[in-house]
Amino acid sequence: MIDLSGSPAPWPEEATRLWADRVGQAARQTDLWTVPAPRGDEVLRAALATQLGLPEDQLTITSSLRATALTYARRFGHVVLERPTYPGVVPVLAGAGAQVTRASWDELLKGAFGGEPWDTVLWLTSPGRNPDGRTLRGQERARVAELAAEGHRVVVNETYAWFCGHAGTPAGADSAGTLHKLRGVGARLGWMAGPGCFEEAFPELLGTPPSPVWQRAWGLFFRDGGLELLREGLLAEVDAAKAAFRDRLASAHGIDFPAFDGPNALIPLDPRAGRTRAPTTGQPEDSRPTTEQLEESALAAFHEEGFKVVAARHFDTEQPALRATFFGIGAAEAARFADVVARSPRTALRLRCQGHT
Fold first, then answer.
1. Digits of tens for pLDDT over the chain (357 positions)?
2. Least enclosed by CB within 10 Å: which of 16, 279, 305, 317?
3. Which long-range contacts (CB under 8 A, 24 or more apart) does 178-185 make?
4. CA distances from 259 to 133, 243, 262, 315 (A)
5. Closest to 193 (Cα-Cα) out of 345, 314, 1, 44
């Protein structure tokens, strides 16, 4: 089974050896066991600031993206959450008492969400949004800056900057993110960066961040070339798999699959694919299957072909689709996945090579 469901790939052996050595170095530093670091370990903060272009003096280490979201939900009464998006923050935001409104980027950037600016958080993901690989560009970035200038609190989840570069957080917006996509939830580290973030997050920071020893190990790993090793291995493999997927669709099937940033892409499904036929005439009936039925049927079909993907409805997509994440697969496997996608009667991609939109 070829897994495109989103599980991060194992590290190259050289990166694992470097990590293990730096864990040992951190463990032998006595002060890390006894001296608190409420903003986060200084070595890790400096490394993240360098790698992501964030202001070090505004950067605070958290345990995860969910932990970061908790601070905003506690302080603001209204959170406008993009759709589609990563679903993990939804129960945190709602559970902390915030009113959560879902809005597409078009709706969000037009300001069509209500609420007082001073009590409203706008939450977006860029670059490489999960699940569709979308990135804020040009006028979109400028509009985000305008919304922040109008008094809205804008948070940009930049978790996927590791995979597609970092163009800089839009002016006036806070940055949030996590290291989990580099290795998995065991990384147990995230960040938030913006004026006042540390003071606002202080109640959460009293008890949730990981040990300073753990933070220092990651800081030393980044400082001493760990991310470069991952770029040469893990991250380069993602780029190669994505390219092989799109190239195969174009060269073998005449399908121009849109470019996407980061490791995630949406495979659209044809809403007509699951229509049943009347028993007497054999003609399609008027009723169409639900999104869940379409996606579950497609999941089963792809599973039979040897590929594990994810139903897109979990990300609050507007149309039925499957999400594929190009972690840990080779170019040959990605090309074979492209063949399955192109041949499938359930996907909407085949319509493009027949002159349809």
1. 999 999 888 899 999 999 999 999 999 999 999 999 999 999 999 999 999 999 999 999 999 999 999 999 999 999 999 999 999 899 999 998 899 999 999 999 999 888 899 999 999 999 999 999 999 999 999 999 999 999 999 999 999 999 987 778 999 999 999 999 999 989 999 999 999 999 999 988 887 888 999 999 999 999 999 999 999 999 999 999 999 999 999 999 999 999 999 999 999 999 887 665 545 545 455 577 999 999 999 999 999 999 999 999 999 999 999 999 999 899 999 999 999 999 999 998 854 444 333
2. 279
3. 178/64, 178/65, 179/218, 180/8, 180/64, 180/65, 181/8, 181/263, 182/8, 182/230, 182/234, 183/8, 183/11, 184/7, 184/8, 185/64
4. 8, 9, 10, 20
5. 44
Q: Environment class of residue 343 by beta-carbon count within 10 Å: exposed (0-12), middle (13-18) or buried (19+)?
A: exposed
Helix, strand, coil content of the chain in percent (nearest 5): 50, 15, 35
Pairing of strands 59-62, 190-193: antiparallel
Q: Is 194 left (phi over 0), alpha (psi -120 to 50) or beta?
A: left
The helix/strand/coil state of 341 is helix
Kind plus residue range of the DSSP H or E element containing 268 = strand 264-268
Q: List the one residue out of 243, 252, 209, 222 whose CA is nearest residue 334.
A: 243
DSSP structure class, residue 269: B
pTM above 0.85, yes or no: yes
Alpha-carbon distance values, 356 to 9, 283, 291, 342 (Å): 37, 22, 22, 15
3-state secondary structure of 277: strand
Work out whether strand 321-325 and strand 264-268 pair parallel, antiparallel, or are unpaired: antiparallel
DSSP 129-182: -TTT-----HHHHHHHHHHHHTT-EEEEE-TTHHHH----PPTTPEEEEESHHH
Q: Which helix (H) or strand (E) holds 62?
A: strand 59-62
- Structure tokens that stand for 57 in this block: 């003096």
CB atoms within 10 A of CB 336: 19
